[in-house]
Write a structure and sequence with these properties.
Number of strands: 8
Largest sheet: 8 strands, parallel, barrel
Bound molecules: 2-phosphoglycolic acid
Radius of gyration: 17 Å
Strand content: 15-25%
CATH topology: TIM Barrel
Strand order of the largest sheet: 1-2-3-4-5-6-7-8
Helix content: 40-55%
Number of helices: 12
Length: about 250
């Protein structure tokens, strides 16, 4: 099994210019080549500065938090995939639950974003996950299956191999309520099964699946110990260099 281990930090709408540069500098300075990819996803306006700070590091990578679903044109305030490519972004986070919920992003819109990103040569961190109501109705597996089917499963195998999946139960994002290691493992194994059924087992075994939702140094060890959890997409705990670096170390030690 040759999956990539990843710890990705989603800074969301945080960090001023100086704060962001200082945080990125600290991470790049201290992140070691320990076999885990560190990915930093700052707000758009910081991408170019963080790109320069990362330089040509072999283990720290740059992600955007979103992109627009059209290639170019009259979309005031939006950012295109080609703009992101031109500043040297490596990954784009697509389908974060905050985008789905606050900005009404549908599976269909996300398909367009995924296609544009892959066509431009950028890799994708694709987020999926259920709300509390859906989990209470025991419909979470079906829900995630639908998210994957409607936004990703049109891809050819070689395209799908450039997708990292982030499973982020909405009830655990920014709430302090983390999924139990068992809940995370169960869902990650289900996702791998869904991928296997749609492609094949070889592809499913090679797919990196990250857990996201209140993951931090105090609870990551048990999550990272689970066989189908390949790392984390980290919000709150990615805003402190010490915590983010600790998570990288913890993943490497697993
Ligand atoms: P959180 O966010 O770690 O602050 O819960 C995770 C995410 O939204 O990716």
């Amino acid at each position: 099994m040759n999956r990539t281990n990843i710890i990705a930090g989603n800074w969301k709408m945080n960090m001023t210019l100086d704060e962001g540069k200082a945080l990125a500098t600290e991470i790049v300075k201290q992140a070691t080549d320990n076999g885990v990819k560190a990915i930093i996803a700052p707000p758009y306006y910081l991408l170019e500065s963080v790109r320069q700070i990362i330089g040509n590091s072999k283990h720290v990578f740059l992600a955007a938090q979103n992109c627009h679903q059209e290639a170019a044109g009259a979309y005031t305030g939006e950012i295109s995939v080609n703009m992101l490519k031109s500043v040297g972004v490596d990954y784009i986070i697509i389908g974060h639950s905050e985008r789905r919920n606050y900005f009404d992003e549908t599976n269909k819109m996300l398909t367009k974003k995924v296609n544009l990103a892959l066509q431009a040569g950028l890799d994708v961190i694709f987020c999926c996950g259920e709300s509390l109501t859906i989990r209470e109705d025991n419909a979470h597996v079906q829900h995630v299956k639908r998210q994957l089917r409607e936004s990703l499963f049109h891809l050819y195998e070689n395209e799908f191999s450039r997708i990292v999946i982030a499973y982020e139960p909405i009830w655990a994002i920014g709430t302090g309520e983390v999924a139990t290691p068992l809940q995370a493992q169960e869902m990650h194994a289900e996702i791998r099964k869904i991928v296997s059924n749609n492609y094949d087992d070889r592809i499913a075994q090679a797919t990196t699946i990250l857990y996201g939702g209140s993951c931090k140094p105090s609870n990551a060890e048990a999550l990272f110990a689970k066989p189908d959890v390949d790392g984390g997409l980290i919000g709150g705990a990615s805003l402190k260099a010490e915590d983010f670096l600790k998570l990288l170390e913890m993943r490497a030690a697993k």
